[in-house]
Design goal:
single chain; six-stranded mixed beta sheet
Length: 513
């Protein structure tokens, strides 16, 4: 399928709570995607408050897990392995002993990241998968909380606080169930820590991005509570009230009750109250009502550092375009056809009757993306490829687009051939205004698809003029254009429904072949 053989790399996050291994397949400067992931709850930071050392039971759990990771990489033929340790190992008095044991017993060489390096990799994950220009990243791990300031997509400053989910639980809450007084003491401690950071405050134009397993789990719980309708976590907007509700739901509840909260990860349940209290205090003191979730983190940041080695500051220049072309290169199909459909789609969109047009310039960018990706489902099978396109787009996630935008792009691809565009139960994310926009954008895309039905570029350009109740679509063709005329005429109904205009199609000029 691909002329350049892909590579495999394994990245291991030796975290303070969980160890994660991801496997990414990639072709340099072409495409990449996640092909495998393993997560183990190790609790490496457990008991460190006693003497500042990694405790023997935690060390043994870590070695067992890393031995399994090494065996996995060996059996799957992955020689390119990078393992990085974060706060728990960084602050441990017995750090060197632990690193040497890991190397001797598993063959894995672990790099201990400084707080600044850890924050930088988290930042690279955010800046290469989201369109955040200015704001803050809050990365909550098991042993620490990193807060990073972004300005014009540049990492400006960062700080690491020793208030991770595991440490907060051990130092303030103790055994579950935890009483409200213990939770209050933890809240007051975090409040003091955050208040001291006078630069970390909500201001106009700033976004708060959340990373880390506890924050992702909080978002999953919020989605379940809200019956959200979309399982994607990346770019989900979690509101502060939801965090408060989850926190209150866990206070003075036993572990079994906490585990039964919809969306709760069972192996994280005993530290979720501590972690949630940290997030609540962080949001309330800084003044942010919402937190945008980044499902990527340290591991992806490490990958971007390599993959974007030749890019300035290890950043994609345009996250959205990079996402679209990454997907195109990952699932090859008739790109010339897709680009011509996208061109014709935008030509129709730009000349559509202003009197009934509800779409905006921002919607035009979504329409371009749908035009490029509409046929990507052909890489699965031609039959029902519009449905395959919908599935691939929705499940790929399209980093850089928010959930509303993702759904609109996927739905346009879903209806580019036939059917009446529907919000399909996604009313938690899309509203009635989007219903009309979806119809108009899909109409433009469907007409362009029919003009390019023969996939030979016979329709070189279009002119759309509207007079009264009728729009006149004039085709500039190279050749006869018989197929285009026949095909587009059969879909004039969606144009009338979208723009309240009849559609007449004629060939007004021919380009020499």
């Amino acid at each position: 399928m691909h002329s350049i053989p892909p590579r495999l790399t394994a990245i291991i996050d030796v975290g303070s709570n969980s160890f994660r291994l991801i496997v990414i397949e990639y072709v340099a400067e072409r495409w990449f995607h996640l092909v495998d992931e393993i997560r183990e709850s190790v609790r490496l930071a457990e008991g460190m408050g006693v003497d500042g050392n990694l405790q023997p039971p935690a060390v043994e759990r870590a070695l067992d897990t890393l031995h399994m990771y090494a065996a996995f990489c060996h059996s799957t033929g992955i020689a390119d392995i990078r393992a990085c340790a974060t706060a728990a190992v960084r602050i441990a008095h017995n750090q060197r002993e632990f690193i040497e044991r890991v190397l001797n017993e598993t063959g894995i060489r672990v790099q201990v990241l400084t707080a600044e390096e850890e924050a930088r990799f988290g930042y690279l994950a955010v800046v290469n998968s989201m369109t955040v220009e200015n704001g803050f990243i809050a990365d909550l791990g098991g042993a620490s909380l990193e807060i990073t300031h972004i300005q014009n997509r540049i990492m400006k400053e960062t700080i690491s606080l020793n208030i991770g989910a595991v440490r907060a639980t051990e130092d303030f809450l103790g055994a579950i169930p935890a009483d409200s007084k213990s939770v209050g003491r933890l809240y007051e401690h975090v409040t003091r820590e955050i208040k001291a950071l006078d630069w970390f405050r909500k201001r106009p134009g700033l976004t708060l991005v959340g990373q880390g397993g506890t924050i992702r789990n909080l978002a999953r719980i919020a989605q379940k509570r809200d019956k959200y309708g979309l399982g994607e976590l990346h770019s989900y907007l979690m509101d502060r009230d939801s965090v408060v509700d989850t926190c209150q739901e866990m206070v003075e509840r036993n572990l079994s009750q906490i585990c039964r909260i919809p969306g709760m990860k069972e192996d994280r349940a005993d530290i979720m109250l501590g972690g949630t209290t940290v997030v609540q205090a962080l949001m309330e003191v800084s003044g942010f009502e919402t937190m945008e979730i980044c499902s990527q983190g340290l591991r992806e940041g490490i990958f971007y550092d390599r993959y974007l080695y030749n890019k300035a500051n290890r950043r994609f220049e345009d996250v959205r375009r990079s996402t679209i072309y990454n997907m195109i290169n990952l699932y090859p199909y008739n790109m010339a056809h897709a680009e011509h459909v996208a061109f014709l789609t935008l030509r129709i969109f730009d000349q559509a009757p202003a009197s009934t047009m509800v779409c905006t310039a921002e919607d035009r960018d979504l329409l371009w993306a749908a035009g490029i990706l509409h046929d990507i489902g052909v890489s699965v099978d031609y039959n029902d490829h519009h449905r395959h396109s919908f599935y691939l787009i929705l499940n790929q996630g399209l980093p850089g687009y928010d959930h509303r935008e993702l759904l609109l792009i996927a739905l346009m691809a879903r209806y580019h051939r036939k059917g009446t565009p529907s919000l399909q139960g996604y009313t938690k994310i899309l509203d009635n205004t989007d219903r009309k926009k979806l119809l108009q954008m899909t109409a433009c895309l469907r007409l362009a698809e029919q003009l390019e039905r023969s996939r030979d570029g016979v329709v070189r350009d279009v002119r759309l003029n509207t007079e009264g109740k009728t729009s006149h679509l004039e085709l500039e063709v190279q050749g006869e254009g018989v197929v285009a005329l026949w095909s587009v005429a059969r879909h004039a109904d969606i144009y009338k429904e979208a723009f309240q205009k009849d559609l007449e199609v004629t060939v007004t000029s021919r380009v020499a072949t």
